[in-house]
Write a structure and sequence with these properties.
Blueprint: E1 7-17, E2 26-41, E3 46-52, H1 65-76, E4 83-90, H2 100-115, H3 124-135, H4 141-146, E5 149-155, E6 158-164, E7 171-177, H5 184-189, H6 197-215, H7 221-224, H8 231-234, H9 239-250, E8 255-257, E9 264-268, H10 272-284, E10 289-293, E11 302-306
Parallel strand pairs: 3-4
Antiparallel strand pairs: 1-2, 1-11, 2-4, 2-5, 5-6, 7-9, 7-10, 8-9
The structure holds L-homoserine (HSE).
The site of L-homoserine has 13 residues, from helix 5.
């Protein structure tokens, strides 16, 4: 069956990973989005049009991450890749620890799912496997795919996930620095190969507590977001992030590095805590930080068919 002429629209949420102690495991989908339209055309090759974040910066040919993700799914499923025309409208900041690469990968995987509808059926576990193969770790792609709070782990059969809903009091704020970016590869290179046993125990206890805090007892969020596995090792690469997190935590707020940074995630136990956080950031930051008061996205990425294109 030829899929030339098919067109799909995809919407993918931003994500914040780790949430403090849950390194490479916990993630939360947030209400900022990348939108994408993809058309399968007869003429081979890839053309990408980018609007918004990344315009004039990200590749617009077959090396584009969304296009590579679509190609990865087609190859995995043994399907011939048609020509692709992509139009991206991006809202998720790049290089800030808000899951922009995970969102691009998930957008591609979901676009491929939509284009291949009726040809092959891609279930949730397959989508997570394909996205994780490209991203390297599952903690951003799981919430981007499925929404809500996700626990992701890797079994002998590949990546797995459990989706949970968050207590309605939990109020996320992400503070995004305007001039500072961070590469996940650099952040990961600062991690040691092994950690003290006591630190591992410390994080096991906080991660377990964090699930309870997020779904049932938000008043425990401050205690539950302590971490000894990654943030201190990476602090020298993002000194302002580190300094601001100290100020926020000293004031009783559950502040952590968002993903690999440099943005800061504050998990308010009620909406008013976000105003306190925004004020503290305004007072103590020496560069410009944008406080984004966000909701938890519970749907995750969506894909829908568009009317059959005339460009086939
Ligand atoms: N768990 C990942 C990290 C998230 O902190 O390196 C960023 O991709």
């Amino acid at each position: 069956m030829s899929i030339v002429g098919r067109a799909v629209a995809v919407k993918t949420p931003a994500t914040t990973a780790n949430l403090g102690p849950g390194f490479d495991t916990l993630g939360l989908a947030l209400s900022i989005y990348d939108e994408l339209e993809v058309t399968a055309v007869a003429e081979p090759g890839v053309i990408v049009e980018v609007h918004g974040v990344g315009e004039g910066e990200v590749p617009t040919d077959e090396t584009n991450l969304v296009a590579r993700s679509i190609a990865h799914v087609f190859a995995d499923q043994g399907q011939p890749l048609p020509g692709l025309r992509l139009v991206a409208r991006n809202g998720i900041p790049h290089g800030r620890g808000m899951g922009s690469s995970g969102a691009a990968i998930v957008a591609g995987v979901m676009a491929a799912k939509g284009l291949l509808e009726g040809v092959v059926d891609l279930d949730s576990r397959t989508l997570l496997r394909l996205a994780t193969e490209l991203e390297g770790h599952p903690d951003n792609v799981a919430p981007a795919l499925f929404g809500g709070l996700t626990i992701a782990w890797t079994s002998d059969d590949g990546p797995e996930f459990k989706k949970l809903s968050v207590h309605r009091g939990v109020s996320p704020l992400v503070a995004v620095p305007e001039q500072i970016t961070m590469s996940t590869a650099l952040a990961r290179s600062l991690q040691p190969q092994s950690v003290p046993h006591q630190d591992a125990i410390f994080n096991v206890s906080r991660s377990a507590l964090l699930i309870a805090a997020l779904i049932q007892s938000p008043e425990l969020l401050h205690a539950a977001t302590e971490d000894r596995l990654h943030q201190s090792y990476r602090a020298s690469a993002m000194p302002e992030t580190d300094a601001l997190i100290r100020v926020l935590r000293e004031n009783g707020l559950a502040a952590v590095v968002s993903g690999a940074g440099p943005s800061i995630l504050v998990l308010g136990s009620d909406p008013a805590q976000r105003l306190v956080a925004a004020e503290l950031l305004e007072r103590h930051a020496s560069t410009t930080w944008r406080p984004l008061m966000l909701a938890v996205d519970f749907r995750g990425a969506t894909v829908g068919s568009l009317p059959v294109a005339a460009v086939a």
